[in-house]
Amino acid sequence: MGWIMTVWRKSMFIQPDAKRFTKVELKIKREKSDSKRESSDSVSYSSLKAESSSAQSSSEDAEVFTPELIHGDDEDKHKNTYRFLCPHAGQFQCSLTNLVFVMEGEGKMQYKIVSWDSHVLDGLGQMQAAGPLYNIDCSAGSVSKLHFPHCEIFSEENKDGLAVAHFTGGNVEIIQPLKVTETHVIIDIRELSNFVLVWIKSKLGFPIRGQVLLFLRALSLEKNKLNVHLLPENVPVSEVQSRHQDKKYIETSSKCHLILNQEYSLCCQPEECEVQPKTEMFECNFGPNYHPTFEVFLDVNIEEVRLGILDKTEGGKEVWNRRRIFLTVAPSKGVEPPKPETEFVNTHGDKLIQRVSSVMAIADSLKSKNMITSEIWGKIKAAEPKQQKMRVLLEALDSGGDSVKAEFYRRLKENEPHLVDELESGPSRSSSRYYLPHSTSRTL
Hints:
By secondary structure, the protein is of the alpha+beta class. The protein has three domains: about 5-205, Chondroitinase Ac, Chain A, domain 3 (Sandwich); about 205-335, Immunoglobulin-like; about 340-430, Death Domain, Fas. Helices cover about 25% and strands about 35% of the residues. It is built from ten helices and 25 strands. Helix 4 (about 340-345) crosses helix 9 (about 400-415) and helix 7 (about 375-380) runs antiparallel to helix 8 (about 385-400). The termini are far apart.
């Protein structure tokens, strides 16, 4: 397959086969390996005991800190960087991401969730991402262990199904945990870069700890939309919020148990509120985009709803018990007006559907920037005619928020500047505002 796999203790190192070795070179490499093994075997019993004791340390013993949160610039304002100045040796747990750092001394920790193509795991056998991809750096190199939060609910069948993939220099190292607790996967590290928690696919199909996140947005003077997200518990809320800055986050008790690839539905009262879709399959989404699982369209005068999540596969069993949700945002109460690029997309939706000819070129650009998923891109490509392609893209823009709409606007202006100039200089904007296809307010 053109890859070399090296197994060393609890790690597996996978790298491209860049060269072939002669018998002499292989002999030298083998002698070096044997030398390392002999040196390792000479470690004293007391050292091994100390290492074992360290590996057994619990994430619950960590000192909790709140990191400095640095938002990106205008181009990447939805990307967060977390920074922590560690004062001394010890265990420290981030209150926003639940990452735990085992420090040998003081140092500046800087970490963030980065975009990536999870398909790189396809060549490594039965593995699937089980958490976000973290880029981690430490100024003094004083971090010795990392605790990654997981969302798995333990059983005899799945207790050995977690590991950590370490990406560095174009290679992938699969690190077996020192210990897996009910909340964290603990690993020893030699160097820092990109890390992601992985599942062995054969261990999937068991319940995980999930969360329900709610975001409210004003669509017009008469309508609001409530986005309901079903996500794994180890997705930081701060990351989802940064992707939906044009919406109001509604905090509520969010914990629930979910099963991958199982069908769920949203129960909503009052019943006149429109919910779409009727059912949806749960997939573990670790970013970078966080599209809503369900959308609820409701009048602005509705101040309270009751929501519940039902497992359709289990005959309608409630997995997130029905609870009261108070809606505190309406356009009349000072919702921040959208930016010009967002207003352009909101205003001219019907004309964009009919007149944009460069849909796939724009979709390609958005996909390359991880602003739409491969699944959405595939739906756009498959849709016919081009007007339907644009409808699918508009739905994705609405879910993605202001940053995605702004990028769409920039790409449209590059590809079809005359269309943008014509629409921006045209008559009243208010008469052609678009909404989602199932909303009666949208004109197609």
